[in-house]
Write a structure and sequence with these properties.
With 580 residues, the chain is an alpha+beta fold. The chain has three domains: 132 residues, Galactose-binding domain-like (Jelly Rolls), CATH 2.60.120.260; 347 residues, Glycosyltransferase (Alpha/alpha barrel), CATH 1.50.10; 62 residues, Maltose phosphorylase, domain 3. The chain is built from 16 helices and 18 strands. The strands form four sheets. Strands 1, 2, 3, 4, 5, 6, 7 and 8 form an eight-stranded antiparallel sheet that branches. Strands 9-14-15-16-18 form a five-stranded mixed sheet, with helices on one face. α3 packs antiparallel against α4 and α8 packs parallel to α10. The longest helix is centred in the middle third of the chain and has 21 residues. The N and C termini lie far apart (52 Å).
Length: 580
């Protein structure tokens, strides 16, 4: 099995440079004569630098770093899940010296499959708070800095504000998450494992594109190309590589990556698993010889995994000791509705990639397969009496997921959409922060924008606002500890609202490579006003909307020269466009 750290394989871009950015505290409190409590305002991955004066060589400073607060001026030293806390003892030297606290290596995120920190940065920890304790020394409070690891990030490149303060807070939560989780130059799953996962990385990619038109393309592509060669073991995730490849091409307009990895991407569609009617089954006995090699699926990296498991959503009930989990009781059948919907989407996008590169025969093959999967899924996996999709072949249960994924990918015929949408709305947020990406996409595309807005601005315990209430400044791996017992507080796969606000609520999406043509199709629902600043490879787009008490909407759109705009007649009638 290749060692991905020492043998990085093929890449069309370099791993982005990670820099250490000094951050000043937002508040310092004297807890008592021998303790300082420092708040940096937001959590970042990094360490602490500070100047300390002592008259002895025997003094020791205890540096506590953590993500979660306990009480007014203290760090939670026993946080739930894998929320981070660490105490580091720093031996002091006589006189005044500046100390950079050395973060100890955690074997949970420094293993064989983990992305290691660049040597120029060293080990880091996600933390917002720092508590300094000890006797026999004084700390220069003006010297205290958080050294935050990140790739280059322009805080002012993108902005959003609306009439909903909750939505604005959720945007800022997601925006900071994207910035902070660039700490190792690759999109990883948070601090517990520091492993890239395709589904996580795809959401991270879409959200990062909405904030940055420079470094985001580099880190997204590097992560994608890494995962093509060193994939994780879920079938759903392997197919996400095709989604990442198409997004890269659509947003950058560059073909070098899809050319380089073309044959790999063909395998990632899992078309080799298709039976005669087009539907795929990922069971071991259904896999043709050599498939795992074509997928680069060195699944022995993950002890006990057999490779190509069906995921649907995470965690399942079994992970939560019999609790429901995040699959909405989805029945895991050999022919799985969610997996086949993803297969349809992968084949559809692969046909476009093939067409772009002039592989017309391949394009026709994948177009034919996509149509066959769609027809078979609609013929065999739809309960006409109830008007909803079932979880798989032979199942009578209908989960939220079995209906969301076909709707999000445009597989649901118009005459079935009303009952499918009604069912989806009835299930609320019966999914994880990952599947919420597709839930929101499906709702906006099916003209259920108000329900989508309600979910993004909810304040219950399955909401982004609840993440803020729990004390985090980054999106959580799960809605709360009760929904994932080992959750972390720094997981960018939960940033769906950010890219959904840009792509669906404000309605700006590229439809031609490199942003040469965009679709403008805003769906503000009951919001009364909104403003967006969006960086693109061709310059910055500004969009605003206002909605009167009579429901009359007006839009203003400023786009750089070189960007064409497509919109419906209805939107065009109330939109003023300015070329800049």
């Amino acid at each position: 099995m290749p060692d991905s750290t020492n043998h990085p394989g093929r890449f069309t871009v370099n791993r982005p440079q990670v820099i250490a950015t000094p951050v000043k505290p937002t508040a310092i409190h004297h807890h008592n004569d021998s303790s300082l409590f420092v708040d940096f305002g937001k959590a970042m991955f990094g360490t602490v630098c500070l100047s300390i004066t002592t008259s002895t060589d025997s003094a020791v400073a205890q540096i506590h770093l953590g993500e979660k607060r306990s009480g007014e001026n203290a760090i939670d030293t026993n946080p739930p899940g894998t929320v981070r806390y660490c105490c580091i003892k720093v031996p002091l030297k006589s006189g005044t010296h500046r100390y950079k606290v050395q973060i100890p290596t955690d074997k949970r995120n420094a293993g064989k499959a983990a992305i290691l920190m660049p040597d120029t940065i060293g080990e880091v920890l996600p933390f917002r708070y720092c508590q300094i304790q000890g006797d026999g020394f004084t700390v220069d409070e003006q010297s205290i800095q958080q050294l935050a690891a990140q790739v280059d990030f322009d805080d002012n490149a993108a902005a959003f504000e609306s009439s909903s303060e909750i939505l604005n807070s959720v945007w800022e939560l997601c925006k900071h998450t994207i910035k902070a989780t660039t700490f190792c130059g690759v999109y990883v799953d948070g601090d517990r494992e520091r492993i890239p996962y395709e589904g996580d990385a795809y959401i991270n990619q879409l959200s990062h594109y909405c904030l940055d038109a420079k470094t985001s393309f580099q880190i997204a592509r590097y992560t994608h190309e890494y995962l093509v060669q060193y994939p994780t073991w879920f079938a759903d995730w392997n197919m996400h590589s095709v989604l990442m490849a198409w997004a890269d091409y659509l947003y950058t307009g560059q073909t070098d990556s899809i050319i380089c990895f073309y044959d790999d991407l063909k395998a990632k569609t899992l078309i080799d698993l298709a039976r005669e009617d087009g539907l795929i089954c990922t069971a071991i006995e259904n896999r043709p010889e050599g498939l795992e090699a074509r997928l680069h699926l060195y699944h022995e990296r993950y002890l006990g995994e057999k490779g190509l498991d069906d995921l649907v959503d995470w965690p399942p009930g079994s992970f939560m000791n019999g609790e429901v989990g995040e699959r909405d009781n989805h029945e895991m059948m050999p022919i799985n509705t969610v997996v086949n919907a993803l297969h349809f989407q992968a084949c559809k996008l692969m046909s476009r990639i093939a067409r772009v590169l002039g592989h017309d025969e391949d394009a026709m093959q994948f177009e034919t397969q996509a149509k066959k999967v769609c027809d078979s899924l609609n013929a065999n996996l739809f309960d006409a009496e109830r008007g909803v999709y079932v979880d798989g072949e032979g199942s009578t249960h209908s989960s939220l997921h079995a209906n969301v994924f076909p709707l999000a990918f445009g597989m649901v015929p118009i005459d079935r959409q009303a009952t499918v949408v009604k069912f989806i709305e009835s299930r609320g947020m019966a999914c994880s922060v990952y599947a919420a990406q597709y839930l929101l996409e499906a709702l906006y595309d099916a003209n259920s924008a108000e329900h989508a807005l309600t979910l993004m601005t909810a304040t219950n315990d399955r909401s982004w606002y609840h993440m803020i209430e729990q004390g985090s400044t980054m999106t959580l791996e799960a809605w709360a500890y009760r929904y994932k017992s080992n959750l972390d507080w720094n997981h960018a796969w939960a940033t769906a609202p950010l890219n959904i606000i840009v792509r669906k609520l404000m309605g700006i999406e590229p439809i031609e490579p490199g942003f040469t043509t965009i679709r403008f199709d805003p769906k503000p629902a009951s919001l009364t006003d909104g403003r967006l600043k969006l960086p693109t490879p061709l310059g910055t787009i500004h969009a605003t909307f206002k909605q009167g008490s009579d429901g009359q909407q007006t839009y203003q759109l400023s786009v750089p020269t070189g960007i064409n705009v497509q919109m419906s007649d209805e939107v065009s009638a109330v939109t003023r466009i300015e070329k800049i």
